[in-house]
Structures are given as structure tokens and as C-alpha cells.
Amino acid sequence: MFVQHKQLKSLKIPATKVAHLHSTSSSVQLSFAEHFPQLCQAYLIRITGGDKTLIVVAFYLTESQCSIFFVPQFGEVLHHLAEEFYEEGRAFIESMGFELNETDYHLIPEQEKQSYWGGLPICQLPGQAETPPSASVAEIEPDSIQLRSRSLKSLGRFFASM
């Protein structure tokens, strides 16, 4: 299960940490809490660091020019479990009407990855995206404060290790 990470506003991480990236080629109109209904685009990202992997589901809201991020309930996972969570993230996105496409990010030459990654709207702070793509929306599943706190601490440790 994925939970919203409300403190995360953009993915300012090195392009070299992104192991895999899927995105949608078309937008879907959705409505998130605290946002009016609008076209969104979705991204599925596998971020690696040390012996752990973090799967991130990101939605970019076109009109609001902001991103909404979801992470697995317990944060990062060991590499051998990453594929299972990546597929869960794919199902989460596709359940909202999106169709994910392979970006072949992992095949891009290393010297070109940073400009590609840095140009994505999910890597920009709200309102700073040059061309407003879209993001996806999801109902936030109620979860316990303890579980959310554990997930956020885990995510914080993961980003700090980068």
C-alpha cells in the first residue's frame, strides 16, 4: 500500500540514483484533496541507494503546477523486494485510468541523464515547471499516525543516505 508523503514537494535527487522511470504519455483528469479537479500526469520511479530501493509514485497537477508523491507504507525496501513494490506502484497508477510507458531512462547515456531528469516537472518546486505536464490523483487511504511516522522517518533516512 502506498501513502501520501505530504512534506515532499519535488524530487531533488541525483539522476544517478534513478534506476528506472515510467511515465504516462497522456493526462487524466483527477481530483486530490486540497486541489481542484485538473489534468494530471503520473510517474513511477525506482530510486536506489546503498542496499535499499525506494519506489515513488508521483503525480504532476498541470494547472496547479505542483506534484503529489506517494511512497510505500514502510518506506524503502531491500533490492530483492523492489520489483514487487514497483509492480504495486504500477497497479496503483493504472487503477486511476493512466497507462504507463517505459521511458528507457536506464538506457540514456550517463551524461544526458541529469538534464533529462532535472527537466521533469516532478523535480521542480511548485510553480516552477517550465512546461506544465500533468499528474495523477488518488484517494488517500486512511492510515495510522504511527505507520505514517515510521514511513516518513524511513524515507528521511533514505534521502539522507544519498
Question: Which labels suit this protein?
Answer:
single chain, 162 residues, alpha+beta, eight-stranded antiparallel β-sheet, 8 strands, globular
Strand content: 25-35%
Quickly give the structural class. Answer: alpha+beta
- Average of per-residue pLDDT values: 82
Number of helices: 3
Q: Overall 3D geometry?
A: globular
Largest sheet: 8 strands, antiparallel
Number of domains: 1
Notes on the protein architecture:
With 162 residues, the protein is an alpha+beta fold. The chain has one domain (2-111, 119-160). The chain has three helices and eight strands, in the order E-E-E-E-E-E-E-H-E-H-H. Strands 1, 2, 3, 4, 5, 6, 7 and 8 form an eight-stranded antiparallel beta sheet that branches. The chain is globular, with a radius of gyration of 15 Å. Residues 131-148 have low confidence and may be disordered.
